[in-house]
Amino acid sequence: MGLFDFQLDLFQVKKEERKKIASSEFSTKSLVSFRYNPRLRKSIRCSYKGLFGHPEVTLPSYMKGEEFLLAREIVAEWALCANKRKTENNKKQIKELLDRFWGVVDQVLADQGQKTLDSRGRFPPIQPKGTYYDLDQVLAAVNETYFSGELECRITWSRRFGGLSFHSIRKDPITEEPVHVISISRGYDTANCPLYAIAGVVYHECLHIKIPVEQKNGRRVVHGREFKRCEKKYIFYDEWMHWHKTVLPKNLRAYRSKK
Description:
Radius of gyration: 24 Å
Structural class: alpha/beta
């Protein structure tokens, strides 16, 4: 090979390395193996095989795809913990890992547009895109206008049958960090909901992050004097409250009647 051939090689685009696909039969970080059962959906099973008792976890068949890789690694860690002596710390870790596992599963299903599992007490699947409004866009506008873009939170349409909007603090199943989650009533995702109304309820829930619950005389004050004062800074406060009191209840009744 001549000098110029060598120089040309220096500037050639490297061939894309073949992406290594993780096996769905074994954990990438431990000696945990996986089996799949098409009859399972909301449950998993664990047994210990071989001379050294390596865990074998049976999962629902839909978890065999690559998108469930993180969920499988979490449940592999859970299986290893479950085989240890049951101390208080170990029991706590087992529960946390199981909650993280189902939280990740729910999020994958939500991202795929599938019906999520019953995740009560776990991190809710984040579904910001509705039929009429994308909550991520509304939150970004409210955050920039009223909070200088400083609020850190996630937002989703609520899965509660009652239809109320609310704010909660959950542990992220991936990072394990506490995160503020805003859930907005489905009664706002309708053709008759003006933009000022959906922005109003998002602003209201954002205030719960900015102004925490007060403790006065042994009782919790959720909407204290400072909260109400700040809430009225919303430029369309009166219009939003009128819509909230007159139209939202009708939307919720219509929503419940379809269930």
